[in-house]
Each structure stands twice: as C-alpha cells, then as structure tokens.
Amino acid sequence: MTTSAARVAPSALRRAQDVVAPATRAFIARLDDTSAAIASYHLGWTDASGAPTGQGGDKGGGKAIRPALATLSAQAAGAPAQVGIPGAVAVELVHNFSLVHDDVMDGDTERRHRPTVWAVWGTTSAILTGDALLALAQEVLLEGSSPHRAAAARLLAEATRHLIRGQVQDVAFERRGDVTVAECLEMVSGKTGALITASAAIGAVLAGASAEVVAALSTFGAQLGIAFQLVDDLLGIWGNPEHTGKPVFSDLRLRKKTLPVTYALTHGGSPGRELADWLAGSEPPGSDSTGAARAADLIEAAGGRDWAATEAQHRLAVATQALAAVPIPTGPREELIAIAHFIVTRET
Amino acid sequence: MTTSAARVAPSALRRAQDVVAPATRAFIARLDDTSAAIASYHLGWTDASGAPTGQGGDKGGGKAIRPALATLSAQAAGAPAQVGIPGAVAVELVHNFSLVHDDVMDGDTERRHRPTVWAVWGTTSAILTGDALLALAQEVLLEGSSPHRAAAARLLAEATRHLIRGQVQDVAFERRGDVTVAECLEMVSGKTGALITASAAIGAVLAGASAEVVAALSTFGAQLGIAFQLVDDLLGIWGNPEHTGKPVFSDLRLRKKTLPVTYALTHGGSPGRELADWLAGSEPPGSDSTGAARAADLIEAAGGRDWAATEAQHRLAVATQALAAVPIPTGPREELIAIAHFIVTRET
C-alpha cells in the first residue's frame, strides 16, 4: 500500500491543482485590482511587482491537499469531480485567507520561501486581502444552480468558525505553560482540522450525498487533519532541512509548543522538566541551535516523538476505517486513502 | 413629511433593534468564548471586563439603520418583518466586522465613546473577532429552510466584496492628492453604500420578491448609502459636538479627505488651493483647532458644504422615486422613506 500510495497521491494532487487553479484565477480576477494583485502574489502566481512567476500554483500555492479532497469527495458520492470544483476553490480561498491573516498575527515574515503579504504591503493590505478571500469563498459556492449550494456554503461557514476558534486557542496557549495534550488536540482539530474536514465533505454535500456518506467523509477528514498536524509538528523538529526548506529544528527555535512538545511537557518526567526550563528560559528565540538540538533530544527522551508518530498512524487507521463503513466507489476511495498515506509519510 | 419622518423613523429603528438584538445575541453565543466576549463588548452589551452594560444594543450598537432596512425590505415584498430577520442580523454582523477591522487599519482608539477592540485586546484579537463576525453572518443566512437563503447569502457576499473594495480605495486615496469627486463617490458607494444597498434588498430576496422589487430596493439603498455618507461628512465638520459626541471639526483635525473636502479641492478656486496647502501642511493632525476652523470656512467658501447638502437631498429624492416605480405596500414604503428622511436630517 505504501509504495502505491506514494505513486498515486501526488497525481491526485496535481490533477486537483490543474482543474482548480484556473477556476480560482477567474474568481480572484473579480476582486479590486489591489486585492487581486496581492492575492496573486500570495498564491505564487506573480512576484511582488506583479510579473508572472510561471507557476500554475503548485509551488506557490502549497500541496493542493484540500482541493484534491474536495473533488474526490464529489466522486466519493458518485458525482463527477467537476461537481466538487466550487468546493475545492472555496476551501482553498478560506485556507489562504487564514494564512494571510495568521502571518500578520504571528509576525511571520516568510512563507514558502517568499516574504509574507504583510511584510511586502503592510498590515492593512494583508487584513483587507484576507477579508476579501474569505468573502469570495462564499461567492464561489453560492453561484450556479446546484440545489445543494446553501448546504455547502453553510458547511464552509461553520468550518471557518471552528478554524477561527482554533486560532484563538493557539494564541491563548502561547501565554500558558500548562496546556494539556487534550487541549492541544482540541485546538488542532479547529485550526488545522476544521478546514480539512470540510474539504473532505464539501464535494459530497454538493453532490447531494446521503448523511451517512457525508458523516463518514467528515470523520475521515477530521482524523486526517489531526494526522496532518502531527506530521507537520514532527517535520518542524526533525524534518530534513533539504526537504522542508526550513532551518533545522525550526519550530523549536521559535519555542512553538506543538503536539510532541506538549506531550513531552506533560508526560515526560525529568526530560520533560528540563524541556520546560529551556522553553521558559530567557534566550531569545531563534538564536540557540545548540539549545534547540538539546530540546529535540529531550522531547524524544520524554516520548514525544514516538507518541506523535504512533498517534498519526492511529489517526490514519481510523480515517481509513471510516471510509470502509459506507458505500463509496473504489476509485475515489483508494485515492482518498492514498492522499491520507501521503500526508502521513510526506517529508515536506 | 419632515415632521412625520422625524417621528416615524426612530420607532422603526427601535422596533428593528428590539427584534434583531436577541437573535444577534443567540448567534454571538456560538462563537468561542473569547471572540464572543470581545464581540459583546464591541456591540455595547458588556464592558471590557465582561459585565453587562444594561444596553440592549441601542447605545453601543449604533442606530440599527441596516437591520431596520432589512426587516422593512421583507415587508416591502409583502412578507412579515420576521422573514427579514436573518438578513437584519447578517448585515449588522458584517457592519460590525468592518468596524472592528477598520479600527485596526485606521489606528482609531475610540468608537462610540469607548476604547476600540484592538485598543483593549490588541490587533490579533481584533482581526480574529472581525473574521469570526464575517463568517457568522453567512451562517445566520444559510440556516433554516428558506428556498431563498442561498440568494440572500450570495447578495451579502457580493456586498462584502464591494465594501472591501471601497475600503481598499479609501486607504489608497489617503496617499493621493488628486482624488476626484467621481472617484470619491465610487469609493463611498462601496465602503458605505454596498452594505446599505444589501440591507435594503436582502429582506425582499429572503421573501422571494420579483427582480423588479429587489432592483428598486437596491437603487433606494444605493442612493441612501451615498446620502448617509454625505451627511456623515457634513456632521464630521459642522456637526454640533453636543449631538455628535465628537470634537468640533473632528474630521478636519484628522485631515480626512471626505466628500465636501474633495469637492472643495477640485472645484474651489482660491479657497480650494488654500485648503490644499493646509491639508499638505506639516502641522500634526489633531493639534490645530484654529487651522481646522479656517479649513471649514474654506470648504464652505469653495462650495463644498452647499454641494454636499444639495447632493444628499438629490440622492434622497432619487431613492424615494425608485420606490414609487414598483408595487410596494404603503406601510413599509412610508417607513422606508421616513428612515431615508431621518438619515438626511439627523444630527448625530
């Protein structure tokens, strides 16, 4: 399965990118010129001067996991991939709304190897561009004549509420030293999970699928979202900088209290206590690669690395089981599972 | 008409506030605790510590013009006011999303005599609370079983895009010295007009009204939105501080290039040129009440005050005519016209 997964998943992602990028461009063109130019830069289509980068979106626009889930979700309900496209475009717009606003809130100056929107155009333009992308996502879904467009738009609006709740919790957790693994998982289920859940279900909703199929796809997406974040957190500490494009131990240098860190802090005995002391230390974040290397060892000694890897595999298994419980055509089911395997085994 | 307008309009506004505030509260309660608390403060229901202010929303939440238009819009289409309530709640949420974000962008520290959200909780919380209100507005519209909810939600999403376009233009105009009256009116038609237009039409859309009635109500709202801003601009310069609660010449102290200022700059001969010199001067905004008084005289001498007042009356007339061209029951029609008169003759 793993070998075939590694072969199949990227093709499903590329296919989604190929159909979704042109539709997304057509909607972005509706925005005022300033917001459209900034969004095109953020999505990787143009540079900061507005010149095309020649990227259809693959490099700049991320892995297209959410749009791929959305189109496969329609196919899982027996409809053509086409039916899921408004959902695919909409989830990608909401994802990018959240990235543009998060970069302002986190003060991050770089994303995907390029300066962030606020770093180039300032906070005001970043707020407005994010707002424009969020409103546009609803337009995408609400046009046309699908009898299920209101249900899909409602699903996305609710997911956005949960996504924002997760971000609110993440911000609050930064100021706390006593966050539990359960609280951290709850935060992740919103911040990362809500939109992946919606992506996995929205195509089926647009296709008018039964409540059972929509529920199974939602469970699949919810488990996948948490697995995605667990792997993200592992890569942020132990990822190969040549693959991730980020500095070694990048999340630890920023003192991010990710899931493996939270596990180590709350289950880790003496290594966990040493880790807590290091996190509470006065060294400025980013300056301390020896300290970060030591912190990575402490997390591993405290069981945080093993726990996160095992938990990701467990979530993958539950996600896969959810799909087995309902009638879904074999092709889309296998592609959904392949994407899930790709998410858990990826190196970037 | 004017006397009766002054009597009728406030009662329509109060009535809207009475039905919309409880529905809005129920939706706000759905947000995460932090966003709900911040939104409750912004809406005037609680103080910064979370203690109830005893205000149903009238004082803190503004004049309820938009919700009143939304419920009357349903009645204009022959439906009960109740049918317009999701629209009324949704437009009020979008209005407040834009206020919370605008205060961040403009760096305004006070609104309705209280510290702004970002001034109390910081920029991150203000961005997130605004985002939450925008997403929630769509949820409000998309619930229930109205066959017209997708059309109403689409109307609101499009209006939000135009509102954001107007704000983008407003930000860009601050850096330009050559903005024309036509450009400024176009900006206002988005920033202020888009949501008032949507408010005037959304109840009718929810009621399944004919395209003609929706179009007439949209024209009414679009004209009213511009009249609203013209009067706002006049009050920002010549308003009585005892009524407006703002310092005398408040907009001029902030060097705001509002519609009467833009008219004076572009049509005002020698007073216009003196005004341009003053606006370009190096005195820090806010420090200069003698200068602001002189600037107000220059705007008047250049014809900006008369133009704005005449233009507001003209927009009121066009708005009223738009309603006369379609079959709308007498009661709601008169109340809509009364609100329009109230907007143009108000002193706060």
Question: What does this 3D model show about the protein?
Answer:
The structure is a homodimer of 348-residue chains. The two termini of chain A are 20 Å apart. The first copy, chain A, has a single domain (2-345), classed as Orthogonal Bundle (Farnesyl Diphosphate Synthase), CATH 1.10.600. The first copy, chain A, has 17 helices and two strands. Chain A has 348 residues and is mainly α. Helix content of chain A is 73%, strand content 1%. Chain A has helices at residues 2-28, 33-42, 65-76, 85-106, 117-121, 123-142, 149-174, 181-191, 193-206, 211-238, 241-244, 250-253, 259-267, 269-279, 289-301, 304-324, 330-345; strands spanning 110-111, 114-115. The interface between A and B is large, with 40 and 40 residues.
Note the topology.
2 copies of one chain form a homodimer.
Chain A: H1 2-28, H2 33-42, H3 65-76, H4 85-106, E1 110-111, E2 114-115, H5 117-121, H6 123-142, H7 149-174, H8 181-191, H9 193-206, H10 211-238, H11 241-244, H12 250-253, H13 259-267, H14 269-279, H15 289-301, H16 304-324, H17 330-345
Antiparallel strand pairs in A: 1-2
